[in-house]
Write a structure and sequence with these properties.
With about 210 residues, the protein is α/β, with parallel strands linked by helices. It is about 45% helix and about 15% strand. The protein has a four-stranded parallel β-sheet with strand order 3-2-1-8, sandwiched between helices. Strands 4-5 form a two-stranded parallel ribbon. The structure holds 3-phosphoglyceric acid.
């Protein structure tokens, strides 16, 4: 199950690829830094090919699909071998498909009503996005009272500076973010920098001092 590995690693890098090779290079760089997980987003046309290449060439890593807003993207991601699907919001169609094929789905929700809708769809892990805009760790702490069984993956405005604050909460499964895989690092092929940022993030998540 994808959620078990995500909860162990505690960090889900959100990756935007510009070509199929980016997926493999970025996933290898992240894994070298101790984060063998990537959410490859459907923000570019290269997402599907990048997922397929990363799944084939980086078997040690958990490869998921992100920014999945349509059923067709979820179908494409699963056909390319993605292990989990993330949406910025909640989609009944994507949710039904994920449940049918048995793949882990992380829908986005921030309000109690949205969270209840996602829970009614059979979900227990929710992306809290954009976390910094919707109240950050304070909001997640408050949501823990009415939703004790729900785990969140806060994403959006999370970085090395504040990830420890989120991970300290009992209802946070992992955090997500793009700071260690910024577009410029990928375009300029600065993979060593990605490895360094990933290692720094992993150390913070594990409570080690830098
Ligand atoms: C996402 O879709 O998860 C976000 O774009 C990631 O947010 P960040 O860029 O603020 O880390």
């Amino acid at each position: 199950m994808a959620f078990e590995k995500i909860s162990e690693i505690k960090i889900v890098p959100v990756v935007k690829v510009f070509g199929a090779d980016d997926g493999v290079n970025v996933v290898k760089a992240l894994a070298a830094g101790g984060i063998p997980v990537a959410e490859i987003t459907y923000r570019t046309a290269a997402a599907g090919d990048a997922i397929a290449a990363a799944v084939a060439e980086c078997p040690e890593a958990l490869i998921g699909a992100g920014t999945v807003t349509k059923l067709s993207e979820a179908e494409d991601a699963v056909s390319r071998g993605a292990s989990f699907i993330v949406s910025p919001g909640y989609s009944d169609a994507v949710n039904a498909f994920c449940k049918e094929v048995g793949i882990d789905y992380v829908p986005g929700a921030v309000t109690p009503t949205e969270i209840m809708h996602a829970v009614e769809g059979g979900n227990e892990v929710i992306k809290f996005f954009p976390a910094s805009v919707y109240g950050g760790a304070k909001a997640l702490k408050a949501l823990g009272a009415p939703f004790p069984g729900i785990k969140f993956i806060p994403t959006g405005g999370v970085s090395a500076e504040n990830l420890a604050e989120f991970l300290a909460l009992p209802n946070v499964l992992a955090i997500g973010g793009s700071w260690m895989v910024k577009d410029s690092l990928i375009v300029e092929k600065k993979f060593a920098a990605i490895t360094e940022l990933a290692a720094a993030a992993r150390n913070i998540a594990e409570g080690k001092l830098l």
